[in-house]
Amino acid sequence: ADAIERLNNPNIPDDPMRIALNGSTKMLPRFMDTFYAAQKKGIGKERLGVVLLPVAGFLRYTLGIDDGGEVFALEGDPKKATLEACGKAACLGNRDSAIAFKKLIADAGVMGHNLYEYGQTGNELQEISAKMLSGEGAVRKTIEEYLRK
Fold first, then answer.
1. Which residues, 6+ apart, have CB-to-CB distance to 35 below 8 Å?
2. Do residues 121 and 115 lie in contact, with contact meaning Cβ atoms separated by under 8 Å?
3. 33 conformational bin, left if phi > 0, alpha if psi -120 to 50, beta if neither
4. pLDDT (tens digit, 9 = 90+) per residue, 72-122?
5. Is 91 helix (H, G, I), strand (E, B) or coil?
6. Using CA atoms, how far apart are residues 78 and 80, in angstroms rounded to an integer?
7. I want to staple 132 with a disulfide (CB 3.0 to 4.6 A). Which of 1, 22, 60, 87 is the partner?
């Protein structure tokens, strides 16, 4: 909720697309390392879903379509070709198309591990991203759902 308020605050001119620059290099140090450390401390998966939200949002970002249905260009990234391929294979309005993110979810260079070989984490991340694909406004709805837990 604080991040959404910050991004909507005109007095803090931090462009979300600048934040997305080189996004694949940010998943591990900014989110997944936190996820792994919390797991090691015994924090249960019911509380860790919120840590996977921004990672699922990153996967959803690869579509190049925002939550309101507007098209945008993906920012520079060392894995931009992979991001674009995943985004082209996924489809807004089709939850099942979240399988398109499998290559990124399994990429240890991006996620720190092949998340499909890391308990149920790969499936959980794919499910969160599937919710975000369900239609326009689904990213916000998914975030709100997880923040209420």
1. 48, 51, 52, 121
2. yes
3. alpha
4. 999 889 999 999 999 999 999 999 999 999 999 999 999 999 999 999 999
5. strand
6. 6
7. 60
Give the chain's length.
149
* Separation CA 76–CA 92 (nearest Å): 22
Q: For 65, phi and psi rounded to 5 degrees?
A: -135, 125
Residue 115: what pLDDT?
97
The two three-digit tokens of residue 6, written as one number: 């910050």
- Any idea what DSSP says for residue 65? B
Structure tokens at 33: 């390392």
Say how far apart CA 105 and CA 112 lie, in whole Å. 10
What does the mean pLDDT of the chain come to?
89
